[in-house]
TrEMBL record:
Keywords: Heme, Iron, Metal-binding, Monooxygenase, Oxidoreductase. GO terms for molecular function: heme binding; iron ion binding; monooxygenase activity; oxidoreductase activity, acting on paired donors, with incorporation or reduction of molecular oxygen. Its cofactor is heme. Heme binds at C151. It comes from the Eukaryota. It comes from Myodes glareolus (Bank vole). Signal peptide: none annotated. PANTHER family: CYTOCHROME P450 4B1, CYTOCHROME P450 FAMILY 4. This is Cytochrome P450 family 4 subfamily B member 1. InterPro entries: Cyt_P450, Cyt_P450_CS, Cyt_P450_E_grp-IV, Cyt_P450_sf, Cytochrome_P450_Monoox.
Length: 207
């Protein structure tokens, strides 16, 4: 095992590494992903005003928003955040941690916890439909962290991604290169060790 941060339990660290190393998850769902991509392409509307940051079509692309949220559930760009406790914390089950402990909030593991997310490995954008979101704990999903130090750029980031993704979907159909599947590499951000190799098929829209 490589370096374990001071104060981070070895068992948790092992679990973290095991989770990130889960094999085969990209190959399973190519047909499923193609169907989702076609539905997305049908629903994408984007005006020049949106690209310039003045339009309101972004708010209307609800399925695209749900897909992006589901991507962030399975692949949170920030997989783990840390805090050093400045006072002791006692949890609901009576266990406690002393002041000074370095603790990790494991966003990646939370987003794949089957007690919170049924069939966690399945890519299902409908998890983020308004009715499904309403029954879920507000901290079940936290790609932008939560609480007083959450991400101040999250709305901007979501809008920027919507514009870029919509522009790409209007022009191309994407599929993974099955011979070069991404190897997840958790660093400060979650990235791929070997890049992300995609096939692009032009949709010939000329846009
Ligand atoms: C997909 C894009 C992004 C993701 C997933 C993301 C995620 C996060 C997360 C998880 C944190 C909390 C870190 C922690 O608790 O230790 C954070 C904090 C922060 N983010 Fe983002 N972020 C994104 C984009 C942005 C953008 C575009 C901006 C600025 C325009 C931004 C500005 C910040 C700032 C200033 C903080 C620190 C807030 C504080 O400590 O009070 N982020 N972000």
């Amino acid at each position: 095992m490589g370096t374990v941060l001071p104060g981070v339990c070895c068992k948790c660290e092992e679990e973290r590494r095991r989770q990130f190393a889960a094999p085969g998850e990209f190959s399973e769902s190519q047909t499923h992903m193609t169907e989702i991509q076609r539905s997305l392409q049908d629903g994408v509307t984007l005006s020049d005003e949106d690209v310039e940051g003045r339009g309101d079509d972004l708010a209307k692309m609800t399925y695209l928003t749900m897909c992006m949220k589901e991507c962030f559930r399975l692949y949170p760009p920030v997989p783990q955040v840390f805090r050093q406790l400045n006072k002791p914390v006692t949890f609901v089950d009576g266990r406690s941690l002393p002041a000074g402990s370095l603790i990790s909030m494991h966003i990646y593991a939370l987003h794949r916890n089957s007690a919170v997310w049924p069939d966690p490995e399945v890519f299902d954008p409908l998890r983020f439909s308004p009715e499904n979101v309403s029954g879920r704990h507000p901290f079940a999903y936290m790609p932008f962290s939560a609480g007083p130090r959450n991400c101040i750029g999250q709305q901007f980031a979501m809008n920027e991604m919507k514009v870029v993704t919509a522009l790409c979907l209007l022009r191309f159909e994407f599929s993974l290169d099955p011979s070069k599947l991404p190897i997840k590499l958790p660093q400060l951000v979650l990235r791929s060790k070997n890049g992300i190799h995609l096939h692009l098929k032009s949709l010939g829209s000329g846009k």
